[in-house]
C-alpha cells in the first residue's frame, strides 16, 4: 500500500493559489475575518462570499500531471490519498480513496454539524450534502432550519484525521509520499511521525523544511516535475 499526503502545492500548478506562500490567499484576505467560527458569527455574508469565490474558481480548474500520476499509480497498487486540499482535483483525475482532512468545497453542512459532539447532543445536526453551487446567505438546513455553511475546516476547528482508519492501515504501508506541503501545520504534521517506520519515504516540495525529513528521500521541486517520474519508477518495480 502507498499513502500520499498532499497539500496546496499539489494543486498550485492547476491554478489554485496556496494559502501561506508569497502571493498566497492569506496575503489577500485576513483569515480571522473569513475562515474562523467567530468570523461566521460576526459576518456570515463575508465568509460565504469568500468561500463562493473559492468554489467558483476551483470548479473551473483541472487536474495537473501530478494528480493524473496519482490516479495512474492507483491503477497498479492500493493508494490512499490524505489531503489538506479542499478542492476536488484528485477526484477529477480519477482517484478513488481520498481523505479530505480539511473538508471539501463542494459540500455543505448544517452550521450545527460537529465532528466532535458538543456538550449537549440536542444541539447537533448531522445534515451534509453535495452541492452544485456555493452556499448563499439565507440557505437553511432542510433538516433543522439552521443556516448552512461550507463543509470546510476553519481555523480553530477540529481536523478530520480519520484516526481509526490511520491505525487500520499503519502496518500495511510500504511507501509514504509527502507532496506539496510544508508539513509544519499540526495536527496534520503528525502524519510524518505516524508513518516514520514506513520503509520508503519521499518528500516533494520546492522549499522543504529539512529538519523534519529524517529518513525521507528529498525531491526538491514542484509536484509536476517529480511525482510523475516517481510514479513511473514505482510502477516499474511493481510490474
UniProtKB/TrEMBL annotation:
SUPFAM superfamilies recorded: DHS-like NAD/FAD-binding domain (SSF52467)
**What InterPro entries is this protein classified in?**
DHS-like_NAD/FAD-binding_dom, NAD-dep_sirtuin_deacylases, Sirtuin, Sirtuin_cat_small_dom_sf, Ssirtuin_cat_dom
The annotated active site, in chain numbering, is 102
For this protein, the Enzyme Commission number is 2.3.1.286
Q: What class of enzyme is it?
A: transferase
Asked whether the UniProt record includes NAD among its keywords, one would answer yes
Molecular functions (GO terms): NAD-dependent protein lysine deacetylase activity
Q: Where does Zn(2+) bind?
A: 110, 141, 144
Keyword Lipid biosynthesis on this protein?
Answer: no
Deacetylase sirtuin-type domain: residues covered = 1-237
Q: Which UniProt keywords apply?
A: Acyltransferase, Metal-binding, NAD, Transferase, Zinc
Q: What is this protein called?
A: protein acetyllysine N-acetyltransferase
- Recorded source organism is Okeanomitos corallinicola TIOX110
Amino acid at each position: 500500500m502507498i499513502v500520499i499526503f498532499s497539500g496546496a502545492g499539489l494543486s498550485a500548478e492547476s491554478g489554485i493559489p496556496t494559502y501561506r506562500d508569497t502571493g498566497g490567499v492569506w496575503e489577500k484576505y485576513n483569515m480571522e475575518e473569513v475562515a474562523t467560527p467567530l468570523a461566521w458569527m460576526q459576518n456570515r455574508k463575508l465568509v460565504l462570499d469568500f468561500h463562493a469565490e473559492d468554489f467558483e474558481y476551483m470548479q473551473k480548474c483541472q487536474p495537473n500531471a501530478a494528480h493524473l500520476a496519482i490516479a495512474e499509480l492507483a491503477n497498479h497498487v492500493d493508494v490512499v490519498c490524505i489531503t489538506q486540499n479542499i478542492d476536488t482535483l484528485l477526484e477529477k483525475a480519477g482517484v478513488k480513496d481520498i481523505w479530505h482532512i480539511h473538508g471539501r468545497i463542494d459540500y455543505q453542512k448544517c452550521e450545527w454539524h460537529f465532528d466532535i459532539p458538543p456538550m449537549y447532543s440536542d444541539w447537533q445536526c448531522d445534515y451534509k450534502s453535495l452541492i452544485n453551487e456555493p452556499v448563499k446567505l439565507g440557505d437553511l438546513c432542510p433538516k433543522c432550519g439552521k443556516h448552512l455553511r461550507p463543509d470546510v475546516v476553519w481555523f480553530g476547528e477540529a481536523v478530520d484525521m480519520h484516526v481509526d482508519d490511520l491505525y487500520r492501515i499503519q502496518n500495511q504501508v510500504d511507501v509514504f509520499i509527502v507532496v506539496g506541503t510544508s508539513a509544519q501545520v499540526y495536527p496534520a504534521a503528525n502524519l510524518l511521525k505516524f508513518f516514520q517506520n514506513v520503509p520508503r519515504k519521499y518528500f516533494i516540495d520546492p522549499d522543504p523544511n529539512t529538519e523534519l525529513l529524517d529518513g525521507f528521500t528529498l525531491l526538491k521541486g514542484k509536484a509536476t516535475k517529480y511525482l510523475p517520474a516517481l510514479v513511473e519508477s514505482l510502477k516499474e518495480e511493481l510490474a
